[in-house]
Design a protein that fits this description.
By secondary structure, the chain is an alpha/beta fold. It has twelve helices and 23 strands. Bound molecules: MU-OXO-diiron.
């Protein structure tokens, strides 16, 4: 689908309304779009970002509606993941020669995505400009939004910034502009889900990115997923930026948050959980609530774990392993945001108790910090076991207090 955004600027990407899962792990109820933009100055033509490989035929057709691909002089890659760069190798066969502008990290990724060593790569510097003739592209690296290679590209003459994933959403309507969307409430839902999955682990970088944007003069943001964001009546650009700022702001609490997650076949792991929580509260005054994993919404527990100052996790052992609900909880760990987060592991078992060391190994491999030894108890905890559990809780409480 081709849409003129402003004079000399076209959206030429592809819509994927049928997609229901993105990158294996993200549910995408409303599909997505792979947005790409052609910018034609009086002298030169640039393509901003590309497209998913599966949509290449449609993408090429869209480009041809504006110009022959051979007329593309520059390809700007704000971010190199296959949903944006996957079609590049095929596109380059049509374009012939074009200089590729990207960041240092982006240059490495694009080589590995295209498996080409003959690319005409230009690594951009902060603030560097590229004159297309009446349209100037200005490059603003924005690392970890959400990969190391990410950057924004500003187009000051048209008050536009191209941000790729930043402020994007897996959302697909045939109406390109935010003010024309038929189902804005659905879009807002998708926008939040996208932020949580893609940018939630990078909150401090999000705030830095918003500050970088604030230093630019723009009234339109062209992302690479979802609608064009605008200012003015029914425009959602300011709303979107404010949402990112609010969601990324550091949370301030009066008390530390140290949840105790567990599940328990016969109540024995629960007994340990109760005493661990007691120990945590005793030394830290932390909010140390108990959560039987199978009784709560898993997404909410994952969120709680990721927001916590530290946590305890308890698992029985069945067939030499921790149990599925515990693994499901741990599959939602934000491994970037939880680095060095203190945790303890505990659990009752019948035969051999591999569940506790298995969970500890998993969390340690995610660079989290285990406090004390994993507490394994055979069947019903004795008074001594319960005292050990309370002591382990105290150690965790001390660790979160620093
Ligand atoms: Fe839309 Fe990070 O790729």
């Amino acid at each position: 689908m081709v849409t003129e955004i402003k004079q000399g600027i076209w959206s030429v990407g592809a819509l994927n309304p049928a997609m229901r899962v993105f990158d294996i792990v993200m549910c995408t109820e409303y599909g997505t779009s792979y947005n790409s933009y052609l910018v034609r100055g009086s002298r030169k033509t640039a393509l901003i970002d590309a497209c998913h490989r599966s949509f290449f035929p449609q993408y090429l057709e869209n480009i041809r509606k504006i110009c022959p691909p051979e007329e593309i002089d520059y390809i700007v890659l704000n971010h190199n993941e296959p949903d944006h760069t996957g079609a590049l190798a095929a596109l380059l066969e049509e374009v012939g020669s074009a200089a590729i502008y990207t960041t240092q990290a982006g240059a490495l990724y694009v080589r590995n995505i295209t498996n080409r060593t003959d690319l005409d790569l230009h690594v951009v510097k902060e603030g560097e400009e590229l004159d297309l003739g009446g349209k100037t592209l200005r490059f603003v690296p924005a690392p970890f939004l959400h990969w190391p290679d990410s950057m924004f590209t500003a187009l000051p003459e048209d008050k536009i910034v191209f941000t790729c994933d930043f402020l994007g959403a897996h959302y697909c309507e045939p109406y390109v502009f935010d003010h024309a969307m038929a189902y804005p409430a659905k879009y807002k839902e998708a926008f939040r889900g996208y932020y949580d999955a893609i940018f939630g682990p990078f909150k401090k970088y999000v705030l830095a990115g918003l500050d970088k944007l604030s230093g630019l003069d723009f009234d339109m943001v062209l992302t690479s997923h979802g609608p064009v964001l605008t200012r003015g009546e029914k425009g959602m650009l300011d709303w979107a930026m404010e949402q990112y700022r609010q969601w990324s702001a550091p949370t301030s609490r009066d008390r530390k948050l140290v949840p105790v997650f567990y599940t328990s076949a016969y109540g024995n792991t629960r007994l340990l959980a109760q005493r661990i929580a007691q120990g945590i509260r005793e030394v830290s005054g932390a909010e140390a609530e108990l959560y039987d994993i199978i009784d709560h919404d898993l997404c909410k527990l994952c969120q709680l774990l990721n927001e916590s100052d530290g946590f305890a996790v308890g698992t029985p052992t069945i067939n030499r392993d921790a149990v599925l609900p515990v693994w499901q909880l741990l599959s939602g760990v934000d491994a970037i945001g939880c680095q060095k987060k203190p945790f303890v592991v505990f659990g009752s078992y019948g035969w051999s108790g591999e569940g506790v060391p298995g969970v500890a190994a998993r969390l340690t491999s995610l660079r989290m910090k285990q406090v004390g030894e994993g507490l394994k108890v055979t069947f019903v905890p004795t008074q001594e076991d319960l005292d050990k559990a309370e002591e382990l809780g105290r150690q965790l409480g001390q660790a979160v207090m620093g």
